[in-house]
Amino acid sequence: LQKVSEWTIHRLSTYHRLLSEFESEGREYISSHELAHRAGATPAQVRRDLSCFGTFGTKGRGYFVADLSSMITSILGIDRDWRVALVGAGRLGSALFSYKEFRRRNFHIVAVFDSDKSKIGKHWADVEIEHPDALKAVVSKHQVDIGVIAVPSDTAQSVANAMVDAGIKAILNFAHRKLFVPDGVALRNVNMAMELEALSYAMSRNRRLR
Amino acid sequence: LQKVSEWTIHRLSTYHRLLSEFESEGREYISSHELAHRAGATPAQVRRDLSCFGTFGTKGRGYFVADLSSMITSILGIDRDWRVALVGAGRLGSALFSYKEFRRRNFHIVAVFDSDKSKIGKHWADVEIEHPDALKAVVSKHQVDIGVIAVPSDTAQSVANAMVDAGIKAILNFAHRKLFVPDGVALRNVNMAMELEALSYAMSRNRRLR
């Protein structure tokens, strides 16, 4: 199996969303050119990304939208439900819990943890906030697949350790801190400032061009 | 000037963070191999990304960490302060307002808007929440560069229109909705579910490999 870069996976997510758009516009076929244009990529990049996973598209007709979309669904593993445990019931945790797009993409937050005594026992929708000491038991009971870290950076590594100890194999980290996890555990770090940097790049470039 | 893909800019942000890590580890030079490894990219991709902006690195020695870092700072335009207006003072808006990494990267939220009367007049730190009707005046008074949309998807387009009308040239959209802005206005859409999809991809692939 070929090694696929993280960036290719991110672009697949983007293509998947764009294919839904094309579908809702009534398009049956699209070219790599059109897909690339909307994705902010090049046609060659689109073809290279998809070639990691097989042969798609027909010469002269492009990609059949419905087929390509369902292939990417399967590659990304979003043709099933995923169970998520969230650690950190602060502002960010609360925003993530109510972020509708997670559920729409089959990611379900089934457990919430916080060490703040004033939060423990409260309910968010039908999920009760529990102390992180209960992590291992809850992960096993609810068969949690993914852990989301939304705690301050100084406690993020200990939360990650507890998640690994509880058998979680995939962690999404929102804390601004490099985390260490053993081989076999997938880790992604989210940095929302990167998106603002893409905008400051665009504005700085426009100024340079003027 | 060469057209640079959005993905290259995202990787530059990543390289920039990694260079700080290398610096704090006391490294003076790094190879494209090392940088690529930590960035989840290939060495060829690192070299291609950087070649969009000039010639970096010395044959046999690699990149001088401090120089490369300051070049990327300048390319991304983060060698100055940026003034940000946030529309939407709900859970997500509140999490974004308190997200320390924005300030650390020189993005300052100087104005907050919400149409909910119970929120207007309240203060977040020293910023008073105002009605969106005040957007144009406030943007002009505070010389706002960037607008952040953290409202429900059904009102996101009208907020974007108001931002454009107020003279904002860069918009970061957290609503799950395709927005339309005129040429000359930079728009980035954030989708936090994409990060979870990178994890479900990794877990699905591991299962296939087993």
How many individual helices of chain A?
A: 9
Portion of residues in beta strands of chain A equals 15-25%
Placed side by side, the strands forming the largest sheet of chain A appear as 5-6-4-3-7-8-9
**Given the C-alpha coordinates, what overall shape of chain A results?**
globular
Radius of gyration of chain A: 20 Å
The poorly predicted ranges of chain A are none
| Subunit arrangement of the protein | homodimer
- SSE ordering of chain A: HEHHEHEHHEEEHEHEEH
Largest interface: A-B, 64 and 64 residues
Number of strands of chain A: 9
> Residue-averaged pLDDT of chain A, rounded?
92
What does the largest sheet of chain A look like?
7 strands, mixed
Please report the distance between the alpha carbons of the first and last residues of chain A. Answer: 47 Å
* Overall helicity of chain A: 40-55%
Helix/strand/pairing class of chain A, anyone? alpha/beta
